Amino acid sequence: MKLASYKSGRDGQLMIVDRALQRCCPAGDLAPTMQVALDDWSNTAPRLQEHYERLCRGDHSETTDFDASKCDAPLPRSYHWADGSAYVTHVELVRKARGAEMPASFWEDPLVYMGASDAFIGPEDPVAAESEDWGIDFEGEVVVVTDDVPAGTTIEEAAEHIKLLGIVNDVSLRNLIPAELAKQFGFYQSKPWTAFAPVFVTPDELGNTWDGARLHLPLRATLNGKLIGAPNAGQDMTFDFPTLIAHCAKSRSLISGAVIGSGTVSNVGSKDGSCCLAEVRCLETIRDGRPSTPFMSFGDRIRIEMLDHEGTSVFGAIDQRITPFEPSRG
Amino acid sequence: MKLASYKSGRDGQLMIVDRALQRCCPAGDLAPTMQVALDDWSNTAPRLQEHYERLCRGDHSETTDFDASKCDAPLPRSYHWADGSAYVTHVELVRKARGAEMPASFWEDPLVYMGASDAFIGPEDPVAAESEDWGIDFEGEVVVVTDDVPAGTTIEEAAEHIKLLGIVNDVSLRNLIPAELAKQFGFYQSKPWTAFAPVFVTPDELGNTWDGARLHLPLRATLNGKLIGAPNAGQDMTFDFPTLIAHCAKSRSLISGAVIGSGTVSNVGSKDGSCCLAEVRCLETIRDGRPSTPFMSFGDRIRIEMLDHEGTSVFGAIDQRITPFEPSRG
Question: Which residue of chain B comes nearest to A106, CA vs CA?
Fold first, then answer.
């Protein structure tokens, strides 16, 4: 099934959306919000699924046209957002561009950082930044949402905890990153917002494009109408989702609604382009000695989407503009 | 006023607790949970305060004895947990013990990492770890809870967003830290749990020990009945809470219920002892060439508390045992 959250208060209103993303109905008493559904997923999911099937058959009374512009993030705020850097080829490329060796351990031990789970935004929400000098970039990623994951869960067990999938734009402020990483405490100011495509989908919707660990479809990133890249999310993902989840649950449990991200989708050689401008700039630096593609400017429009083999949008589109915010001046 | 959450489901049951931590009553329809209260704090707080005053006067009908053993964290799960390292003297000491220089910028630019806001535990909950080899340590800290903080909030404005204070044990797995920091993505597996003292208190409860930016009382950490330290949280805090909040809200807003931590409380010279074993071990290393105090073992009992000038517990006590967990073996 496919689930969205229409904007409503802090947690949104949970909506059941048909496969084609054309019609929807409120989940209503079944679960007013996505987190309520996730808190008791094993009971809630079958009942939502029943309504979903009726909706897809055209056999549901309370339906309306689905309107992505009304969407918040499918889970508007979460208690845990752990983002990996699972396409190690991307990490290697970034290092190569600045002339640094990547530690060999990066191929063995997943890189994961803790993101701001209160900073999720909807698919058409503006990306607000104080200054273009911050180096505003998009990052196209795949995410999974888990139920409760006990501490010490194995990779084999972890696969069973994947309940929903989605795609995101993990906004990065590239020019704030070097100073933050030098402090060794990870990203903080440099990772302001994460925007989500309109719907989360259950694994069964994905057919053979989902193998239980990786999603084998291209993720398309388009900036101001120009395709920047469409790397295949199923290729070159060094650490698959069960491996990332087991890593995240090594020293403690995760609670239902934890969002685990792949990091920027990237393929070896970037033959189908890139899902972030940083990678484009790294390729330019390696080729030309310096980057020529700028980061994003106010007014720029970033669209991120995943189409299935029939060309149908799986999650709906992230389609955002970059806008300035005025910091408070007290 | 003082507020706790009795264990009940995932979000607890919000309880109003009297000043002496002797009697309590459920907040009930005023706000079933702490997050519900925080989501509409400007409306909820005055009504909770009215019940609190009646409770403290002995003029409330539905009261029972307050039982800290029933407590979850006052906010059992949060959407944002940003922990500072605001006592830079501690950071300097840790560096000195390993013969490394601390960058001068650490005195100017706050260190903050993103913690696991879904991993909050109650004051008497066990600290579960798979192995003693992980180097299990406590960290005594002060935290504040904010309401909604707009992006770009100034330090002056930030003070107004502090709605509640508490104390925590930010459990650290010291032997997992070096490898994680070397990866530059910050702490993840090495920061498993954060335990909270029974109650959050509003700033007005703290009298002149709270100056709007720092809390001027010793934080007492006792391991197996032996006082490890009682440094004063108001001294040597290089970055006060408004500064930490402004740092956290530089590139985006924070939502109500964000928890901002001080990092391990530490005084120059550690004359009144330490609030973590890592600091004790650093002092030993500087003095003797190597540490002699071990990290915690299974069965150890850690108590963290803050007493006011009359010797009364302000937040109640964190009082936990270290216990092993068996990782799943699938």
Answer: B183
Per-domain boundaries in chain B: 2-69, 75-324
Distance of alpha carbon B123 from the chain centroid: 11
Alpha helices in B105-182 (DSSP H): 155-158, 177-182
Task: Take residue B163 and report the two structure tokens written for it.
Answer: 């709605």
Angle of helix B277-288 relative to helix B88-97, nearest 10 degrees?
40
**Interchain CB distance below 8 Å, B80 and A150:** no
- Amino acid identity of B227? L
> Which tokens in the block code for residue B145?
């809870």
The interface residues of chain A toward chain B in range 59-118, judged by CB-CB distance below 8 A, are: 77-80, 82, 85, 103, 106, 109, 111-118
CB–CB of B127/B119 below 8 Å?
no
Q: How far is B106 from chain A (nearest CA, A)?
A: 8
As given in the structure block, the two tokens for residue A238 are 């060094």
Q: Which of B145, B165, B293, B159 is nearest to B223 (CA)?
A: B293
8 A C-beta contact, residue B39 and residue B31? no
**Which three-class secondary structure state does DSSP give residue B13?**
strand
Q: A243 is written with which tokens?
A: 């491996």
- Local confidence pLDDT in tens for the 330 residues of chain B: 999 999 999 999 999 999 999 999 999 999 999 999 999 999 999 999 999 999 999 998 889 999 999 999 999 999 999 999 999 999 999 989 888 889 889 999 999 999 999 999 999 999 999 999 999 999 999 999 999 999 999 999 999 999 999 999 999 999 999 999 888 899 999 999 999 999 999 999 999 999 999 999 999 999 999 999 999 999 999 999 999 999 999 999 999 999 999 999 999 999 999 999 999 999 999 999 999 999 999 999 999 999 999 999 999 999 999 999 987 654
Q: How far is CA A133 from the centre of its chain?
A: 24
Task: Please give the Cα distance from A234 to A217 (Å, whole number).
Answer: 6
Contact check, Cβ <8 Å, A248/B183: no
- For domain B75-324, the CATH class is alpha beta
Is the separation of the CB atoms in B190 and B176 below 8 Å? Answer: yes
CA distances from A314 to A20, A192, A237, A281, B96 (A): 8, 26, 20, 29, 54
Q: Which residues pair with B26 in a beta bridge?
A: B15
